[in-house]
């Protein structure tokens, strides 16, 4: 999603990357009740759906909609998990937007949500994979707020909160304390230099590009360019993502945490996907990076 830019962008336009429209700029805004976000979240807006026996969801955020302060012992992470046992599938929406989503389809977007650029990744999984997803999320200790689940979903959703085991799921889920992006670059599956976009925090010390004599480089993106939307600086971009520079390893990750000293003590993770079209699209967003 683009940031607000006076006279140029309302801060609600977005670019959609999916199997049917890689890199398509949409004129619909993020707040549109007929748009992609609203349609994805429709089940949690619908009172009849949240009472269905086989449907359940949890929302988690370090900046929840009610504005309450969340302890730093919880992960710096935001997202929604929805499962439908009858349909044998579920959705994981990982995002970077504070105070999102409100439980009202007409006003689900938060006040102030237009100011900065944000990212959202939505992945559909089979129903039986959600226990593995939840177990793997346990180390991040996400702050979960209003939890709703049907009777049949109750066991698997409760299990998500209390067990941890390593599981092989795709896309890859990564969890760490420290510099998440250095860890990603060093993974055998990725093994590539990275360009990284994260929020330039106003408090604390931002981490410089990581350029060791040996090993993989992690370079901070300083400005973004999106065809059809324009250009903006890192100071206007609250999104968290990285893209591999090795064309033979086309990995893109949407993540939870920023590259800042204060964040290296916070828990967080990333959803990573190996897809050439997605990686090519994200690579084109990089207008200028911080040199080593």
TrEMBL record:
Reactions this protein catalyses: Endonucleolytic cleavage to nucleoside 3'-phosphates and 3'-phosphooligonucleotide end-products
Pfam families, sorted: DNase_II (PF03265)
Location of this chain's protein in the cell: Lysosome
UniProt entry keywords in alphabetical sequence: Apoptosis, Developmental protein, Disulfide bond, Endonuclease, Glycoprotein, Hydrolase, Lysosome, Nuclease, Signal
Major subcellular site: other
Signal peptide limits: none
A GO cellular component entry from the record: lysosome
Documented EC number(s): 3.1.22.1
GO biological process, one term: apoptotic DNA fragmentation
GO MF entry, a single one: deoxyribonuclease II activity
Protein function: Hydrolyzes DNA under acidic conditions with a preference for double-stranded DNA. Plays a major role in the clearance of nucleic acids generated through apoptosis, hence preventing autoinflammation. Necessary for proper fetal development and for definitive erythropoiesis in fetal liver and bone marrow, where it degrades nuclear DNA expelled from erythroid precursor cells.
Family: Belongs to the DNase II family.
Protein name (record): Deoxyribonuclease-2-alpha
């Amino acid at each position: 999603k683009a940031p607000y830019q006076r006279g140029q962008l309302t801060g609600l336009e977005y670019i959609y990357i999916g199997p049917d429209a890689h890199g398509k700029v949409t004129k619909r805004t993020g707040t549109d009740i007929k748009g992609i976000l609203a349609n994805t979240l429709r089940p949690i807006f619908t009172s009849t759906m949240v009472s269905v026996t086989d449907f359940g969801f949890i929302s988690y955020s370090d900046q929840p909609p009610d504005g309450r302060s969340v302890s730093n012992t919880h992960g710096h992470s935001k997202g929604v998990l929805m499962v439908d046992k009858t349909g044998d599938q579920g959705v994981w929406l990982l995002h970077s937007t504070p105070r999102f989503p409100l439980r009202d389809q007409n006003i689900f977007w938060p006040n102030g949500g237009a100011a900065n650029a944000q990212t959202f990744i939505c992945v559909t999984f089979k129903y039986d994979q959600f226990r593995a997803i939840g177990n793997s999320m346990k180390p991040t200790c996400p702050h979960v707020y209003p939890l709703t689940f049907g009777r049949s979903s109750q066991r698997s959703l409760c299990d998500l909160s209390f067990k941890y085991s390593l599981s092989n799921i795709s896309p890859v889920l990564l969890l760490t304390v420290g510099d998440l992006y250095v860890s990603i670059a060093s993974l055998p599956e990725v093994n590539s230099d990275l360009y990284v976009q994260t929020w330039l925090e106003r408090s604390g010390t931002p981490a410089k590009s990581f350029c060791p004599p040996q090993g993989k480089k992690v370079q901070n993106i300083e400005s973004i360019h999106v065809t059809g939307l324009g250009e903006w600086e890192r100071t206007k971009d609250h999104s968290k993502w990285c893209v591999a520079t090795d064309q033979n390893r086309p990995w893109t990750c949407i993540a939870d945490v920023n590259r800042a000293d204060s964040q290296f003590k916070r828990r967080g993770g990333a959803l990573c996907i190996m897809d050439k079209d997605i990686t090519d699209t994200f690579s084109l967003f990089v207008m200028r990076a911080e040199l080593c």
